[in-house]
């Protein structure tokens, strides 16, 4: 992991597998190198796809991002959804796992869904669907009840999605709750009681700028 700045070209060892597929913050020039277009830390997914992680409030949809969207309008063929970005997105009525025209979900305005971005960009209307790239459920679908946290930094959300995240590891060992993290700066949490929901919310928000040992001490005090 290294810090990169806009305009920098990735080294051959970093970009040799990138021209085929790139994550947010990177762009492949025609017959040229892979260029950094956003400042941040360079990471690689488990599938070997490089991307630049940065902390920002404004969300720009990127293909394969997991997001939490809110229905703003419904039509016969699907829904309009808000992702917290500059453009509204679309969700097809059949873009769910194991549904057909007879058993499709009946979402209403205000409903929340955990979804995957299929197409997106700064000037392209994002399209989302509630299943993974293999067409399976993959944890995606309608989010019922619970509490929605909005306006979080994209950096915080990426850290929450990272394996062995300290905050979620400690909370999961002591509390029973459901959590969905969207890279669009939204986190949904649900539990049997309001006290647990608020405790999870406070732990996530209050430890954003703390280093690991501070985070552990703070969460122990709250628990």
UniProtKB/TrEMBL annotation:
CDD domains: KH-I_Rrp40 (cd22526), S1_Rrp40 (cd05790). One of its GO terms (biological process) is exonucleolytic trimming to generate mature 3'-end of 5.8S rRNA from tricistronic rRNA transcript (SSU-rRNA, 5.8S rRNA, LSU-rRNA). Residues 146-194 form the K Homology domain. Keywords: Cytoplasm, Exonuclease, Exosome, Hydrolase, Nuclease, Nucleus, RNA-binding, rRNA processing. One of its GO terms (molecular function) is RNA binding. Residues 21-58 form the Exosome complex exonuclease Rrp40 N-terminal domain. It is found in: Cytoplasm; Nucleus, Nucleolus. InterPro entries: Exosome_RNA_bind1/RRP40/RRP4, KH_dom_type_1, KH_dom_type_1_sf, NA-bd_OB-fold, RRP40_KH-I, Rrp40_N_euk, Rrp40_S1. GO terms for cellular component: cytoplasmic exosome (RNase complex); nuclear exosome (RNase complex); nucleolus. The keyword rRNA-binding does not apply. It comes from the Eukaryota. Belongs to the RRP40 family. This is Ribosomal RNA-processing protein 40. The lineage of its organism: Eukaryota, Fungi, Dikarya, Ascomycota, Taphrinomycotina.
């Amino acid at each position: 992991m290294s810090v990169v700045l806009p305009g920098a070209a990735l080294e051959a060892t970093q970009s040799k597998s990138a021209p085929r597929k790139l994550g947010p913050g990177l762009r492949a020039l025609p017959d040229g190198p892979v260029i950094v277009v956003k400042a941040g830390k360079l990471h690689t997914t488990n599938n070997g796809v490089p991307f630049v992680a940065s902390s920002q409030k404004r969300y720009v949809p990127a293909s394969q991002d997991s997001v939490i969207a809110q229905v703003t309008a419904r039509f016969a063929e699907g829904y309009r959804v808000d992702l917290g970005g500059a453009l509204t997105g679309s969700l097809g009525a059949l873009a769910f796992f194991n549904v057909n025209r007879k058993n499709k979900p009946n979402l209403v305005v205000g409903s929340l869904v955990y979804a995957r971005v299929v197409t997106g960009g700064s000037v392209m209307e994002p399209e989302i669907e509630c299943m993974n790239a293999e067409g399976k459920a993959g944890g995606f679908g309608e989010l019922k009840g619970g509490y929605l946290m909005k306006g979080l930094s994209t950096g915080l959300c990426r850290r929450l999605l990272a394996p062995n995240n300290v905050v979620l590891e400690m909370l999961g060992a002591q509390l029973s709750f459901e959590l969905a993290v969207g890279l669009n700066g939204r986190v949904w949490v649900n539990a049997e009681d309001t006290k647990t929901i608020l405790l999870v919310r406070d732990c996530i928000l209050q430890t954003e700028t703390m280093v690991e040992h501070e985070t552990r001490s703070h969460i122990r005090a709250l628990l």
